[in-house]
């Protein structure tokens, strides 16, 4: 579904070129959920922006569904760290906002918006404005908004990192459930190793900037999964293995 070959990104800056991503290659199969872990500032967001078609690669190729990526794609749903909801719209209308932007027929999507909101526990909050919702609720709305137009890919850049620890754990379970229902191809950027292991089929580990992928770890737990897998020795062994890889990649680059 997604294929990267030798993808590089160099930004121009007043202090000279900044090489953010230095030759990344990997494939993601249809329906696979892949997390990307790496040290802060290593180029993860840059990689996601390139996958979204919002940044051009300086070199290399990105293909989505067999076609070279040349710009933003309609069949991708995006979720960022901030929910970025429009304050004057209700939760329902925020979810429906991409439909308006794409000039699709609103009435065809209202039932889907409401079903999505119910599925993340916001059935009683559809008419609320963002200021009447908690941070976790706002991010639930953002998840629903990313799915409203039935995209085949979900691209998520640290969607839970602005939330408190308890809400964050809750949101990982909301996403696990949402993903089980909709089975999109998912790319998830996170700093949380546990979150990555809980949610993913594979975890890619990146080095410090300029980033390359140093490890590609399969997560063997069967689906559907629930939170109880986090208490198993197997889960904790993978978390420890990934933590070791990240520490090693930071030291190696230092
Ligand atoms: N538009 C830009 N112009 C110049 N440099 C940039 C630009 N965007 C990002 N960078 C630089 O590229 C590098 C990678 O940034 P990026 O945001 O992709 O990292 P990240 O891994 O997502 O970071 P974090 O985990 O802290 O969110 C950083 O050194 C950053 O300063």
From TrEMBL:
<dbReference type="Pfam" id="PF00005">
    <property type="entry name" value="ABC_tran"/>
</dbReference>
<dbReference type="InterPro" id="IPR027417">
    <property type="entry name" value="P-loop_NTPase"/>
</dbReference>
<comment type="similarity">
    <text>Belongs to the ABC transporter superfamily.</text>
</comment>
<dbReference type="GO" id="GO:0016887">
    <property type="term" value="F:ATP hydrolysis activity"/>
</dbReference>
<keyword id="KW-0813">Transport</keyword>
<protein>
    <submittedName>
        <fullName>ABC transporter ATP-binding protein</fullName>
    </submittedName>
</protein>
<dbReference type="GO" id="GO:0005524">
    <property type="term" value="F:ATP binding"/>
</dbReference>
<dbReference type="InterPro" id="IPR003593">
    <property type="entry name" value="AAA+_ATPase"/>
</dbReference>
<keyword id="KW-0067">ATP-binding</keyword>
<feature type="domain" description="ABC transporter">
    <location>
        <begin position="2"/>
        <end position="233"/>
    </location>
</feature>
<dbReference type="InterPro" id="IPR017871">
    <property type="entry name" value="ABC_transporter-like_CS"/>
</dbReference>
<dbReference type="InterPro" id="IPR003439">
    <property type="entry name" value="ABC_transporter-like_ATP-bd"/>
</dbReference>
<keyword id="KW-0547">Nucleotide-binding</keyword>
<dbReference type="InterPro" id="IPR050166">
    <property type="entry name" value="ABC_transporter_ATP-bind"/>
</dbReference>
């Amino acid at each position: 579904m997604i294929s990267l070959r030798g993808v590089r990104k160099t930004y121009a800056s007043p202090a000279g070129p900044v090489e953010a991503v230095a030759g990344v290659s990997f494939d993601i199969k249809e329906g696979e959920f892949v997390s990307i872990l790496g040290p802060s500032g290593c180029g993860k967001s840059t990689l996601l922006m390139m996958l979204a078609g919002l940044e051009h690669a300086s070199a290399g190729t990105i293909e989505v569904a067999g076609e070279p990526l040349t710009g933003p794609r309609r069949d991708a749903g995006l979720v960022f760290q901030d929910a970025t909801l429009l304050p004057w719209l209700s939760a329902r209308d925020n979810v429906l906002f991409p439909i308006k932007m794409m000039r699709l027929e609103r009435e065809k999507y209202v039932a889907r918006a409401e079903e999505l909101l119910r599925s993340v526990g916001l059935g009683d909050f559809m008419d609320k404005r963002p200021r009447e919702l908690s941070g976790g609720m706002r991010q639930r709305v953002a998840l629903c908004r990313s799915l409203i137009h039935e995209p085949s890919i979900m691209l998520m850049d640290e969607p839970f990192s602005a939330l408190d620890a308890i809400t964050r754990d809750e949101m990982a379970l909301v996403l696990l459930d949402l993903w089980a229902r909709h089975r999109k191809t998912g790319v998830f950027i996170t700093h949380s190793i546990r979150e990555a292991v809980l949610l993913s089929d594979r975890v890619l580990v990146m080095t410090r900037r300029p980033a390359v992928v140093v490890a590609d770890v399969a997560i063997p737990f069967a689906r559907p999964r629930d939170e109880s897998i986090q208490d198993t020795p197997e889960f904790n062994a993978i978390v420890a293995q990934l933590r070791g890889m990240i520490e090693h990649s930071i030291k190696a680059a230092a």
